[in-house]
Amino acid sequence: MEGLPGLRIAPSLLSADFARLGEEVQRVVASGADVIHVDVMDNHYVPNLTFGPVVCKAIRPHTEAPIDVHLMVKPVDALVPMFAEAGADIISFHPEASEHVDRTLTLIREHGCRAGLVLNPAAPLNWLDHVMGRLDMILLMSVNPGFGGQAFIPETLRKAREVRARIEAHKAAGGNDIWLEIDGGVKPANIAEIARAGVDTFVAGSAIFGAPDPDGFYRNVIGDMRRALDGAHIERRAA
Ligand code: DX5
Ligand code: ZN
Questions:
Q1: Ligand 1, atom 6: nearest CA belongs to which residue?
Q2: Probe ligand 1: pick from 18, 94, 183, max atoms within 8 Å of CB?
Q3: What's the pTM?
Q4: Substitution candidate for ligand 1 out of 143, 144, 150 with most atoms within 8 A of CB
Q5: pLDDT (average), residues 71-93
Q6: How far is 2 from 148, CA to CA, in rounded Å?
Q7: Burial track 109-144 (b if 16+ CB lie within 10 A, e otherwise)
Q8: What is the dihedral of CA 3, 211, 118, 175, to 10 degrees?
Q9: Which of 136, 57, 45 is nearest to 90 (CA)?
């Protein structure tokens, strides 16, 4: 299933079977996933604890799909080289968790990874004002970070439209393309509406891993998402 160009489905391993992570990665990719989203939580920036770089390194041989490391940690910088070394392709972090946001973005690219900034539901867009040229991805949280299975916050759609306009304006002025990712409460029933708001990369944890096919793969739920995206009418406009 090819789907519209540039629309990516990114299962979050947070809801996978942690005892069989390699297999879970292979199964979602074989079922049509484009990106593997890895939620790194430190029980400090968020009240939960998940994966370190060794787990990223362990799943790396199981797929050629990009590994998208979402750092919910504070401080950030020391972990950047470790995840780069462990095979991450994209590393994103929350600006409130870094003393020097511009420096952290530069550090991520210096380590050969694509750099992302993550905005919580209440975080203002002016975090983006002076760093657009250093970004490869903007991740909008559509839930508060820390846990899977929460409800999508509808206000995020308006925010996504504004960010999409900023990205198109940035490109029109000669800037690089920037992925717009959304994370939290994404499911087949709302993915088309989210795409119409300008999002191109869709993280989904519980919706995917909570809906295995009888053979243990995820073709039905990922197929439902892809069909919903194919049916969405998507416009891209500069501000
Ligand atoms: C939450 C994580 C998400 C989470 C999404 O802090 O960043 O990636 O896994 O889970 P769902 O899709 O269940 O909302
Ligand atoms: Zn995430």
A1: 145
A2: 183
A3: 0.96
A4: 143
A5: 98
A6: 27
A7: eebebbbbbbbbeebeeebbeebbebbbbbbbbbbe
A8: -10
A9: 136
Residues with Cβ within 8 Å of residue 98, at least 6 apart in sequence: 74, 75, 76, 77, 104
H helix intervals, 86-138: 101-110
Question: Model confidence over 116-165: pLDDT tens digits?
Answer: 999 999 999 999 999 999 999 999 999 999 999 999 999 999 999 999 99
The tokens of 171 are what? 């490109």
pLDDT of residue 233: 74
Between the two ends of the chain, the Cα-to-Cα distance in Å is 32
Token pair for 191: 């993915």
The continuous run of DSSP H or E covering 22 comes out as: helix 21-30
For residues 161, 92, 11 and 149, what is the CA-based torsion angle, rounded to 10 degrees?
-80
